[in-house]
Amino acid sequence: MLRFLTAGESHGPSLVTIVEGMPAGIPLNIEFINARLARRQGGYGRGERMAIEKDEVEILSGVRGGFTLGSPIALRIANRDWANWREIMSPAPGAKEDRRVTRPRPGHADLPGGIKYAQGDLRNVLERASARETAARVAAGAIAIAFLECLGVELATHVVRIGPVQVKREIPFDEALGATASPVYCADEEASRSMLEAIDEAREKGDTLGGIFEILVRGLPPGLGSHVHWDRRLDGRLAQALMSIPAIKGVEIGEGFALAAKRGSEAHDEIGFTPGKGFFHYSNRAGGLEGGITNGEILIVRAAMKPIPTLRQPLRSVDWITKEEVVAAVERSDVCAVPAAAVVGEAMVAWVLACAYLEKFGGDHLEEIKKRVKEYWDYVRNL
C-alpha cells in the first residue's frame, strides 16, 4: 500500500512528509524534489510569503546513495518565517496570543473549523488549513513522478485560464511541456500576456483571481484503475485528490462539462485497431479514461481554482467572540496562485497514478515492476 502523510503548520518550524510503500531502487536526489518546490513557489501573482521562504527539502530517511530503499521516506521542509513566529506558535504552555484571529474570512476554513474543533483562536485552524501545507504534498509527489518517469510516463502541466482570460486552442502535449517558461505557466503566448495584465489589474483593486489548470499524462497503459467498485474508479480517485487541494472547486476529465451539451454521437471516441500497436481511439474526448480505467490515450485532467478568499479589501464577517459585524481578518496572501496550484495538482495526479501502478503490477523493487510493465505492454500491443 502506497500512502503519504503530511504534518506542520504554516508558521510552525517545518513541514514534514512521510512516504510509505515506495519501492526500492528508484533514482532520487534532493535537486529533483527542490526543482518542483521552486516551481510551486513561482508564478506571477504570488505574495510576500514567497519572498521569505526558499523551500528546500531535507531527506531524513528511506534514501541512500541516490536510490530509494523501500523503507519509509521522511522529508522535512523548514519554514524560514518560523523565526518571526517562534513565541506565537510555540508548542510550550504560555504561547503568546499577539496574532489572535477572531474575524473569520469568508471562503476559508476559519469559521467551520473553529466550530468543529471548539477553538478560541481561529489561528489554530488557519495555520493547518493554509495552502502552505501543499509544499509537503509537492515533495511527496516528486517521488511519485520519479517513479513514473522510470516507467516511461511523462506529465505536462499548464494553466489554461486566469480570471476572464482563457486559452482558446488545444495545447499539444509537447507544447505544454514548455509552459513553465511563461510567468503564469501558460503555453499560449498571447493568453499569457493577457493573464499578466489581469493579475496586475486585480492587484491594483485589492482583489484576487482564480483560474483553471490542465494536467496531461502520456505513456499510461490501458488497464489502470477498475470498474468493479466505486472507490477503485481512477477518475473518481483523481477527482478526490485534486479537490483536496485548497481552493479547488471543480474537476473535469477530457471534455468534461462540455460533453453535457453534446449528443451521444458527438461525445464518444470511436475505436480502431492496428496490428502491432493494438487498440486505439480516433479522438480523446474521454480524456484517457473509460469506465474508471485508463484506455491508453493521453490522460487529460483539469481543475478549477476559486479566487483566493484573503482580500486586501476584506468582505463582511462576524467576530467569533463578540458576534459583532466586522470585516474579515487579513493575512498575507497571493493575488493569484493558479500556477502554484497547477504544480500541486501535478503532484497529486502523479501520486494517484503511482498508486494505480503498484496496485496493478505490485513489486518491491523498481526492476521487478519494470519487467512486469514491459510484459503487460507486450500483451496489450499483441492482442
From TrEMBL:
It catalyses: 5-O-(1-carboxyvinyl)-3-phosphoshikimate = chorismate + phosphate. Pfam families: Chorismate_synt. Its EC number is 4.2.3.5. NADP(+) binds at R40, R46. Reduced FMN (FMNH(2)). InterPro entries: Chorismate_synth, Chorismate_synth_AroC_sf, Chorismate_synthase_CS. It comes from the Bacteria. The keyword Hydrolase does not apply. One of its GO terms (molecular function) is chorismate synthase activity. Pathway: Metabolic intermediate biosynthesis; chorismate biosynthesis; chorismate from D-erythrose 4-phosphate and phosphoenolpyruvate: step 7/7. The keyword Glycoprotein does not apply. One of its GO terms (biological process) is amino acid biosynthetic process. Keywords: Amino-acid biosynthesis, Aromatic amino acid biosynthesis, FAD, Flavoprotein, FMN, Lyase, NADP. Its cofactor is FMNH2. FMN binds at R128, A129, S130, G291, K306, P307, I308, P309, T310, R332. One of its GO terms (cellular component) is cytosol. This reaction introduces a second double bond into the aromatic ring system. Belongs to the chorismate synthase family. Homotetramer. This is Chorismate synthase.
